[in-house]
Batch of 3 targets.
Target 1
Amino acid sequence: MSTSLALTGAYVLAGELAAHPHHRTAFARYEAVMRPYVDRAQKLPPGTPRIANPRTRGGVVMMNTVLRVAAGPVAARVGGLASRLFTPAAEAIDLPDYPLPRTAP
């Protein structure tokens, strides 16, 4: 979701800054549009940070085993399902339509 958040955030911030002459209003609107999307993207399955950062030898072995399985042929079939269950869709936001900026004649 990092790339989706970055690109979406850039689009919304640029649109709000162009639409509102006062930057405080633009920043408040940016926050209002982006916050639900960011909150949803940052929800991680329980235990994810601990699994991704093992502190014991057994934890390292477990993580390596999971990564080995994830890189195998079964993972391709299961990966799509896991991705749908644990990752919000990149299009899970209704983007505002911003007017095109006027160009000087």
Target 2
Amino acid sequence: MIRVIYTEGDCAAWTFPAEPGAVRAARSAVRDQLHRWDLDRLSDLAALLVSELVTNSLRHATGPIEVRLVRPTSLNDVLLVEVSDPLPELPREKDARPEDESGRGLRLVASASRRWGARPGGAGKTVWFELGVPA
């Protein structure tokens, strides 16, 4: 498993309660921050993938959901996005059948991001993905 933790660079972070409005609030926060960083071209994709991960957290966890964006100093062409929740179980990609109403979110994250992963934390887990920043 790849573990990615960047500690230097521009960072923005939010904590949302485990309530249905968290998905909309997280999308909005991500879009606003990417606009401030002049990364509007990543806004739609980042907001979509954050929506998927926050929705997963809402379905399975009961505590606060944290969203963090990082523009690592050492990598000018990467945006790191992390979603953390208090559930320790790491997610797995599933093979959703056509009639299934869920189970496609991680496949979407995997196919639309440069890379993704999950890591356990002291009080839960973090699911992350990287997007390439166009030059």
Target 3
Amino acid sequence: MSGKSSTSPPEAPGAGPDRRGLIAFAWLWVGIPLAYGLYELVRKATQLFTG
């Protein structure tokens, strides 16, 4: 055995720069319109069934 020990995990091959900001932006890009659509669906369904 070699005496070399590493505490950090090996980097994945082809791992690029940190993309957490891009991922958060993509979730917001999809999540905000989805949340608004669900809100409108519930609001209009309530009007439909309550008169």
